[in-house]
Amino acid sequence: MAAVTAAALAMAAVPATASADDTATTPEGYEQYLVTQVELGDSDAQQTLDEYQTLSDSEKEQFVTYLDDPERGQELGDFLSDATDVDSINEEAYETELRKETEGGDVVLEATSGIEEVETAPTTDEELSDPSARYYDRSAWYSVSDKIMGVTVTTVKIGVNYRTTSSRVTKVYSGWASHKNRVPFLEYSHGIVSKWISANPGNNAHAETIWQGEWKGIAWDGRQRIWADQDGFKGGYLK
């Protein structure tokens, strides 16, 4: 998941840049930025604020140094250019990396996943034709979060809602994506969320989207994908 963490790091560590409020790149300014987000009703910003307030003054100085490092953009672009071709991934053998540390452990990139499921009654003529079959509606998700000095600054998440029997995927209902951003002046969004079932022997429910971001005129993108089956989450990446 070298490429996964590279794309995630792009969101976590691209520096804040000049704007009408340059103080957002100082320790005090960044804290005020978070306070403002909370006051505007962004409840998720409270977690980042709580984490940030646990840092010492020297740690806060280091935090904004990482956040505001102008050398990071080119380094990350070079790193991303070496990413493995996503079309060559074997979804049955792929191992999703869950953690990577950089900057001596000050920047941590973490991937997490989860699954929710409920057994449901058959709904179609085909399902009703086999009274012994059992059916499940499932929702799997995969997220990548970035922490600087233990402070969560960004998270991108993708999920897929699908239906299975006890042995195979039968339908993909939908795919979805969401994000949290605590990097001032960084803007990013995602495109259409695609969904499909892969061919045998995979027979996995997939969802995929392309994230696009921009900071100080520097644009980047990253493809995030998840796949899952009747046993739950199987794999994911952000490249």
What shape does the CA trace take? elongated
Number of DSSP E strands: 10
Q: β content, as a range?
A: 35-45%
Strand order of the largest sheet: 1-2-3-4-5
Helix content: 10-25%
Name the poorly predicted regions. Answer: 1-24, 73-83
Report on this model:
This protein is an alpha+beta fold and 239 residues long. 25% of the residues lie in helices and 41% in strands. It has helices spanning 2-13, 27-39, 45-53, 57-67, 72-81, 125-128, and strands at residues 99-102, 107-120, 135-148, 151-164, 169-181, 187-190, 194-197, 205-215, 218-229, 232-238. The strands form two sheets. The chain has a five-stranded antiparallel beta sheet with strand order 1-2-3-4-5, with helices on both faces. Strands 6, 7, 8, 9 and 10 form a five-stranded antiparallel beta sheet that branches. Helix 1 packs antiparallel against helix 5. The longest helix is centred in the N-terminal third of the chain and has 13 residues, at 27-39. The protein is elongated and about 65 Å long.
Describe this protein with a few key phrases.
five-stranded antiparallel beta sheet, 6 helices, disordered N terminus, 239 residues
Short description:
This protein has 239 residues and is of the alpha+beta class. It is built from six helices and ten strands. Strand 1 and strand 2 form a beta hairpin.
Secondary structure: elements and pairs:
Blueprint: H1 2-13, H2 27-39, H3 45-53, H4 57-67, H5 72-81, E1 99-102, E2 107-120, H6 125-128, E3 135-148, E4 151-164, E5 169-181, E6 187-190, E7 194-197, E8 205-215, E9 218-229, E10 232-238
Antiparallel strand pairs: 1-2, 2-3, 3-4, 4-5, 6-8, 7-8, 8-9, 9-10
Helix pairs in contact: 1-5, 2-3
